[in-house]
C-alpha cells in the first residue's frame, strides 16, 4: 500500500509540474528580436586612387572624403536598390547628389594590386570616381582551397591498385577568421598564421607533422611549404582561382574545394 501511495503522489506531482509549465508558456511574452532599421547597412569601406578618396557606408550615413581628405561629404544613408550583380545607393541634399554603385566583382587596387571583393563607382555632383571596396580577407576565408599547382607544376599522381587509374594527390589550405592557416599536404598536416595588410600577405613558417611518405610526395610537400612561407601577395584570377605569389616568383594556385573539377 505504501508503494501505491508513492506512485499516486508521484503522478500528482508530475501533473502539477506540467500544468505549471503550460501556464508559464501561456502567459510568457514572446521573445523580441532586434529588427533592422530603415537606412541601416552593414559597414562597408571603399577606396580609390588618382584622385585619392575613401567612402564609408554605415552608421546611418554615406561619408565620402575626397581631395586627399580635404573635402568631406556626408549624407543620410538612403534605402538600398538591388541591381544585377550588386547594389546602389542614391542620396540627395540641398547641396549635393551622391550615387554609389557596388558590384560583387573582384577589384585589384590600382596602386598596390591588392584584390578586394567589390568594384565601386561613386558619382558626386556629376564627378565620377572609381575604386575598390570590401575586406580583402573575405576573399581568402570562407572554406578550404584545393591546391592545383605548386611552382607551376600540377600535383603528382600516385599509382593505385591493379586495374585502377593513378590517383592525384591533394593539398588543402584553409584561412580562418582568427588569422590561422592550416591544412594537409597529402602526407602531413600543417599549421601557420597569416597577416594581410596594405603591403601584402605575410605567412609565418608552417609547422608540419613528420609522417614519412613516398619520395615524390615528400618533394612536393617541401616545395609547397617553402613557397608558402615566402608568399608576399595574392591575386584572384578571372576564373576565381587563388594565386599566392612568393618572393622568388614561385606561385601556388588553388580553387575553392567544392569548385574543383574531378
TrEMBL record:
- UniProt-listed PANTHER family: HEAT SHOCK PROTEIN HSLJ (PTHR35535)
**What name goes with this protein?**
Putative membrane protein
Q: Which InterPro entries match?
A: DUF306_Meta_HslJ (IPR005184), HslJ-like_sf (IPR038670), Hsp_HslJ-like (IPR053147)
Q: Which Pfam families match?
A: META
Q: Where is the signal peptide?
A: none
The DUF306 domain extends over 139-251
